[in-house]
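Ticket #4471: structure output looks truncated?

Reporter: J.K.
Steps to reproduce: submitted the chain below (208 residues) through the standard prediction queue, then opened the result file.
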Amino acid sequence: MHGYGPMPQQPTTSRPSPATLTTVRVILVALTVLSCGLLGWAPMLRLAIVTRRPRDWFLLVVVIALNIGLFAFIMATPDDPDQMSDAAALFMMLWILGLLAGVITYYLYAEIRHYNTLGAPAPYGTPGHPAPPPPLPYQQQHLAPHQQPRQHQPQPQQHQQPNPYTAPTTPPTPTPAPQRLDQVRAELDELSDYLRKENRDSRDGEGR
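Returned output as attached by the reporter:
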């Protein structure tokens, strides 16, 4: 059971370079042709090891059986070609041609198709530099918020709170100028009345 870490990588079959594949195919086909089909099991053995399919292993057994039968038939024929019948010679020729055509055709077709399904060769041309595995969905969900650029959010303006310990100061209310002038006039009028009254009282005292 694995945690949230990266999953262990499964071993993958690396694809050889095209030059290596071409060289191996040429050698195996040449051995099959030069041996008149008696070494036809060699390319089929390589194909079964590469693909690891039950069908290819079964065909390898069939080719080995045909090679053994061909070898036994050749050993049973007389050494002198003049003593061999035409039917036996034709049968052996068809056996060899059929074995060559079947083995070479199927081997090249199956191996080329197998390596085409593997895709292109590994980066840098060597199997020692495999491509990095894609990130897991869990890692993508947790890495996405950190990779986003931080946007500058405007801070709301802070209103200055009034100090409860300071008494509010009320501005002085200016006295209207007309009312003050009226008050001065009234005082002057009272003063002038008072002076007149004093003058009258002084005159009356002198007349007596």
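Triage note (M.O.): checked the attachment and the full token line is present. DSSP finds six helices and no strands in the chain.
Status: closed, working as intended.
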